[in-house]
Amino acid sequence: MTETPSGQVTLAMVAEVAGVSLATVSKVVNGRDDVARATRTRVEGVLQEYGYVPQRGRRLAGVARVIDAVFDCLDSPYELEVLRGVTEAAGESAVDVVVGRTHDSDRRGPLAPEDQWAQRLKSNGRVGLIVVTTELSLAQIEAFERAGLSLVVIDPLNPPRVEVASVGATNWAGGVAAAEHLLGLGHRRIGFVGGPPQSAPGMARLHGYRAALERAGVAYDPGLVLHAGVFGHAEGVEMGGRLLGEQDPPTAIFGASDVTALGVVEAARRRGLRVPDDLSVIGFDDTVMARLSTPALTVIRQPLHDMGRVALRTLLKLIDGAPLDSHHVELATNLVVRDSTGPLEGTR
Fold first, then answer.
1. What Cα–Cα distance (Å) separates residue 311 from each residue in 42, 72, 112, 145, 341?
2. Largest CB tally within 10 Å, which of 84, 95, 328, 338?
3. Average pLDDT taken over every residue of the chain
4. Position 162 confidence tier, pLDDT thresholds 50, 70, 90
5. Count of CB atoms within 10 A of residue 248's CB?
């Protein structure tokens, strides 16, 4: 067995020698009881023979590892669905999750100076963290590295380094599917309402929308594309109202998030327009709000629950020193047709 450059034996190395999976070794180290006695004895023998030393503050004898799941906010179904996936996967791996926010009440942020929060996490026994839908600076990421904390980002606005592990969805393909669905219903004036222009997922959705229009021979009209500072409901109402107030308004609008799309539905209602008879609306996420709205929202579904689970498993690999197949994982999106989209008037 070859050691790492620092001379430390990792769980991945122990798994290779013992002839078992990395998950099995992790269970033995953490005192889980769902391992066969003979397998446990073999793994423990390898651990002792090679002098395995727990990494980054890990504790043995059944004491669970602790990670932080950090969110910009916790007031939308998006974050709660991701958190459900993180906590379910953590429970299966004997990991405790502490939930926090990326900003304090004054919006000054926890990393000012950058090392303060990282060192606090380290001193409190954290072994890593998952950061959800936030924009991280290079200085912040380097602070985590100095503290020896593993990091996974979910749907980062703008990942500052390619080697930062991240989990997302096939946003470009989702944008294509959304526009193609509306085009297939006969719509040609299709609006797009998004979030921050610097959002990498949002831009991928916009580029997919443009690609579908171009493929169908429909000219891209920048006047039908609007952005807001956040993917919010109020922002959707405002942008939807602006588009619907145009002299030649769109007959369909693609909202780059569920809450933004539902804001467009509200903007249509305020103008006395019926969805989908007068305006088709499609969203992106498939949160519970989309399923419970009236009309039920047609969406591009991204597997938020699975994204949380994959992020947790990826973080544990980093903590255990196991190699990653890829530093960026994209899970597939798919179209879910409900009641908010319909054929263009006159094409029925």
1. 30, 17, 26, 18, 33
2. 95
3. 87
4. low
5. 9
First to last CA, the chain: 68
What residue type is assigned to position 207 of the chain? H
* Tokens 């939807």, residue located: 240
| pTM of the entire predicted model | 0.79
pLDDT at residue 56 greater than cutoff 50: no
The set of residues, in sequence order, having a beta carbon less than 8 Å from that of 208 and lying 6+ positions away, is: 171, 172, 173, 174, 175, 176, 177, 178, 179
pLDDT score, position 16: 87
Q: What DSSP element (H or E) covers 11?
A: helix 11-18
CA-wise closest residue to 33 among 96, 94, 95, 97: 94
pLDDT digits (tens, 9 = 90+) for 291-330: 999 999 999 999 999 999 999 999 999 988 888 888 899 9
Q: Cα–Cα distance between 275 and 182 in angstroms, integer? A: 13
Identify the CA nearest to 141 among candidates 324, 312, 149. 149
Alpha helices of 21-130 — where are they, by DSSP H? Answer: 22-29, 37-49, 77-92, 114-123
Q: How far apart are CA 47 and CA 11, in angstroms?
A: 9
| Domains in the chain: ranges and CATH | 11-49 (no CATH), 65-169+304-332 (3.40.50.2300), 171-303 (3.40.50.2300)
Cα gap 268→260, rounded to integer Å: 13
CB-CB neighbours of 133 under 10 Å: 21
C-alpha span between 247 and 280 (Å, rounded): 18
Query: Prior bond to 54 cis, omega within 30?
Result: no
The arithmetic mean of pLDDT across residues 20-36, rounded, is: 79
